[in-house]
Amino acid sequence: MKKLILFLSIICASGLTMVNIYNGVVDAQSWASDIPASIQTARDYFQHVDPRRFYTVVGPVNEILILLTIILFWKHGVSLRIYFATSFVMYTAIVVLTVAYFFPRNSILFTSSIPDHVDQIKAAAAQWNQMNWVRSLLGFVGVLFSFKGLDTYYQITRKKKET
Fold first, then answer.
1. Alpha-carbon torsion angle 57, 29, 99, 90, nearest 10
2. Residue 159, C-beta contacts closer than 8 angstroms, at least 6 positions apart
3. DSSP string covering 112-129, please?
4. How far from 107 is each of 2, 65, 131, 138, CA to CA, in Å?
5. Taking all residues of the chain, what is their mean pLDDT, rounded to a whole number?
6. Nearest 5 degrees, angle CA 145-CA 155-CA 74?
7. Predicted local confidence at residue 56, as pLDDT
8. Quick check: 28 and 132 in contact, CB under 8 A?
9. pLDDT of residue 49
10. Shortest CA distance to 83 belongs to which of 17, 6, 31?
11. CA 13/CA 64 separation, integer angstroms
């Protein structure tokens, strides 16, 4: 059961990281391609389906899974606690960064009056794109630490079987 939780955590975090990279490579480039027309197109699209909803569902699941992983593997050694706790810190940093940095820029991009705020929208789009790579890097580091924890768990298990 605990390995299943760990694998689900890795899958969820990897998925979030890849979707985030996709947003930076595809969506953000599209939004900034021809402001103000490109922003209006994105707003029209978001009226029907808001891709940000994915993060509001999967993000908390990711946090819960890595927290459960820490709890379930707690007795297996300090190194596992450190690896999984580092992943948790990375994923939590993503949430904090999203709320503190990205939400205000999303507000500018997707709710500000376009004719009155074109320069702000252009600046917000550029800032969003640059910081999204930091957010992606945090996710990538979190996933790497989860994999390191998984590898360490298998090493510990193998050593116990040998003795």
1. 80
2. none
3. S-TTT-HHHHHHHHHHHH
4. 39, 29, 16, 23
5. 94
6. 60
7. 87
8. yes
9. 83
10. 6
11. 11
Cα within 13 Å of Cα(68), Cβ side: 16
Q: What does the block give as tokens for 20? A: 């985030």
Q: Residue ranges per domain, the chain?
A: 2-162
pTM for the predicted model, two decimal places: 0.92
Q: In 10 A of CB 130, how many CB atoms?
A: 11
Q: 50-85, pLDDT tens digit by residue? A: 878 888 899 999 999 999 999 999 999 999 999 999
- Of 70, 68, 58, nearest to 18 by C-alpha is 58
Single-letter code of the amino acid located at 152? T
Task: Locate 28 and state its tokens.
Answer: 């953000």
DSSP string, the chain: -HHHHHHHHHHHHHHHHHHHHHIIIIIHHHHTSSTTHHHHHHHHHHHH--THHHHHHHHHHHHHHHHHHHHHTGGG-HHHHHHHHHHHHHHHHHHHHIIIIIHHHHHHHHHS-TTT-HHHHHHHHHHHHHHHHHHHHHHHHHHHHHHHHHHHHHHHHHHHHH-
